[in-house]
Amino acid sequence: MEIVGLGEAMVLVTPADGEPLHRSVTASLHVGGAELNLCAAAARLGARAAFCSRVGADPFGDRIRAEAERQGVDTSLLAVSDAAPTGIYFKDVHTDGTRRVHYYRAGSAASTMDESDARRLLDARPSLVVVSGITAALGDGPLAAVRAVLAARTAGGLKAALDPNLRPALGPVADQADRIRPLLGQVDILLLGLDEAGPVLGTTDPAKVFAAAAAAGVAETVLKAGPDGCYVCGPDGPVHLPSAATRVVDPVGAGDAFAGGYLVGRLRGLDPTRAAWLGSQMAAAVLTAIGDTEGLPTVAEAAALLAKA
After folding, report:
1. Which domains does the chain have, with CATH numbers?
2. 159 DSSP 8-state letter
3. Quick count: other Cβ atoms within 10 Å of Cβ 96?
4. For 91, phi and psi rounded to 5 degrees?
5. How many CB atoms within 10 Å of residue 77?
6. What is the torsional sign of CA 260, 131, 110, 15?
7. Would the pLDDT of 250 be above 80?
């Protein structure tokens, strides 16, 4: 395995008729989760990607496994819990375009992950493991799993990437940033949102962000700026790449697609600027469709993007 994501995936319910949830009479089901989304993008680019998590012994868990496999993501590290359900969330889309997400993940199977999940992942001996602040915020067990993976990253040449993914729905953002900050010294690649840089590193100035991350022990940082594109650290300072997006239907999942493209690019030997270009193309594709991964390029399209990068 080249890339393994450790985290939670859930089933997403979203209105299919354009109405808000309280009036909608039809809905569509999707599967989402930061690490699984990232692995799906990586697999689309030809990487051998796997998802490590726990799901419930229920139809939603079955759906997550089937969707991961459909996306070309290995599910051999996906455990099934008989004691806890699969998480689910609902997206409320209002007529003015605003969105609100309602999560029902308390007591989910993924929230019961612990160091045994980390050991299962490490036994697979991937080249790169990806973790996020979402997993770290799910509870003491998932946080212990994240810490165990990062602590073992130097064994056998394993590298680690971290996306803080600060989410207000998971508690105070400042508390989430406090959990992330001590982990930075064990991270090879930091995938940081510009909106997260302040809480985590105390600055949103790209040059100062790169300096602060390096001072914290991060080997490499890429700064995601949403509609403004991204920044990578060049030899003469920050290098800005504009967004590749031409149409935005649903922004959810774009950051994960960017991360998957960037990491595959780096694994394939691209420099950070070219890897960021690849990530931007993957993100732009996801923006054009509802759902976290529905807009990903086809395998042939992704291969062409990788060749161009």
Report:
1. 3-8+34-86+111-308 (3.40.1190.20)
2. E
3. 5
4. -105, 120
5. 19
6. negative
7. no
Tell me what the mean pLDDT of segment 87-107 comes to: 85
6 three-class SS: strand
Task: Return d(Cα 160, Cα 157) in angstroms, integer.
Answer: 10
DSSP 224-278: E-GGG-EEEEETTEEEEE----S--S--TTHHHHHHHHHHHHHHTT--HHHHHHH
Q: For residue 1, which amino acid is it?
A: M
The SS3 of residue 17 is coil
In eight-state DSSP terms, residue 290 is S
Arithmetic mean of pLDDT, 162-184: 94
Tell me the C-alpha distance between 164 and 161, whole Å: 10
Per the listing, tokens 């590298």 go with 159
163 φ, ψ (degrees, to nearest 5): -115, 115
Confidence band, pLDDT 50/70/90 cuts, at residue 96: confident
Listing DSSP states for 72-105 in one string gives: T-B-TTEEEESSSPPPEEEEEE-TTS-EEEEEE-
